[in-house]
Amino acid sequence: MTRPTVTIIDYGLGNIKSVQQAFEHIGAQVNLSSCPEEIKSAQYLVLPGVGAFKQGMSALIQLELIPAIKEYAQSGKPLMGICLGMQMLLDKSFEHGEHEGLGLISGTVKAIDRHSPNGELIRKIPHIGWNAISPASKWQKSILAPIEQGSFFYFVHSFRAEVANTEHLLATCEYEGLTIPAAIKHNNVIGLQFHPEKSAVDGLAILNTFINQ
Amino acid sequence: MRNIRIIARLDIKSPNLVKGIQLEGLRKLGDPNDFARQYYLQGIDEIIYEDIVASLYERNSILELISKTSDDIFVPITVGGGLRTIEDVTAALRAGADKVSINTAALKSPQLISDVANKFGSQCMVLAIQAKRIDNGWEAYHDNGREKTGIDVIAWAKQGQELGAGEILLTSVDKEGTKKGFDIELIKAVSEAVSIPVIAHGGMGCLDDCSDAVIDGGADSIALSNLLHYEKVTVDEIREHCNNKNIPVRSKSLRGAS
Known about the structure:
The structure holds 2 protein chains of 2 kinds. By secondary structure, chain A is α/β, with parallel strands linked by helices.
C-alpha cells in the first residue's frame, strides 16, 4: 500500500514543522507547498496556522492560493484547517477589524470575551492549555470517531469560530463558563480549533483517521 | 473551567540536562531528550527547554535538540535562553519549538516582545521574569539571577502584557532549586496584576507546594524540574494530588501515552 501524501500549505505563518512531524510520525508522506497546482492536486490538504487572521489571509492572497484551496475543497477530497487555519475556513473574522475568510464553512470569527455577562473579568486570554471536548453533533461519523468523549486537547487561541449552521458544529469545549467551538465540519472540510499535532496520542489518532478516510 | 498545566522545565547546558541551586552550582544529569521523552510518556502537559549558557557557539546544538525532541514528542515545547532577535526566534520555531521565552533581551529592548507577538502571535511570546525579593516587592533579574535591573517585577509584568506577551514564566530567584516551596506572594501579586496566564516556577519541593501555588497564588501553570529529574514525583502523582484538591487538570488519555 502506498503511503498517503499530506500536502501542508506553507504560507509563512506559524509552526508548520510540528504539523509535518506529527503526520510523518503516523506514517504519512508530507509535502510542504505554496504552489497552487500542487494544492489543487493534493491527496489530503492541511491548512495550518498560528497568528493573526488578517496576516494569514493576506499571505494566502499574495501567494495566489485562494482559488486553488477553493477548487480543492469542491473536489470533495479531505481538507483540514487547524487553529487559525480553521478560523480562515469561515466567511469572515472580526479580529482587529473585519476581514474576509475563505467562506468554505458559513460563520464568523469573534473574540472570546474576557468578561462575564455582568461585566466581571473572569477569563484569561489567550485560552491556553488542555481542555476536554464534547460532541455537538455527528461525532461518530467524523474523524473524531476514535476519540473518547471528554478527551483532552491542547488549545491556544483568543478568538472563536462561530458557525452559522449548528449542524456544522462537531465538538465544543468549555472555558470558564463559555462554550467554544472545538471542531467544525461541512462535508469534506473539517476545522479543529485545538492543535492535534500538540495533543499527544489523541491528537495523533485524529490525524491518523484523517489520512485513512 | 480552567485546567492547570503541569510543565517540565529542563535546564540545558549543551549537550546535557543540568540542574542547579538558585540557578547556580550545576550538576549534569544526562541527555535532555531522554528526560523529555520520559515526561511525555508520563503525560506531561508541556516541556520548557532553557539554554542556561546560551552562547552563540552552542546555539546550533540547542536547535538540534529541539528538532530531535519535537520529532516524537507531541506536546507544546517552549525554548528560552539567549534569544536576542527575531532571527533567533525564527530559528527556534523552525527547529520545532512552539513558543519562545525571553528574559534578558526583552529587558534590554522591550520592543522585542511586540515584534515577536506581531510576527508570530502573542501565544508564541512567553515573557520570562526572574524575580528577587527586595524590601517592598520584587526586582527583575537576568542572566540566571545574577544581574539586577532595578525594574519592579509587577510593573514589568504589566508592561509585558501591554506589549503583547501571551504568558509569563515567573521564576523566583530566591526559591529556585531550594525545594522550599514557591514564592506564593510573588505568584499572587503577578497573577492579580495581569490577565494573561502565569506559570509558577522555582522552589517546588512537595505536592502541596503545587496546590498552594494554584489555590493561594492563582497560578495557571506549574513548572518543575528537580522533583521530576530526581524521580521524587511522577506526573500522575501531581495529577492525583490536584484532583484531590479539586484543582482541574488534564486527564490522562485512555489510549496510554505512546
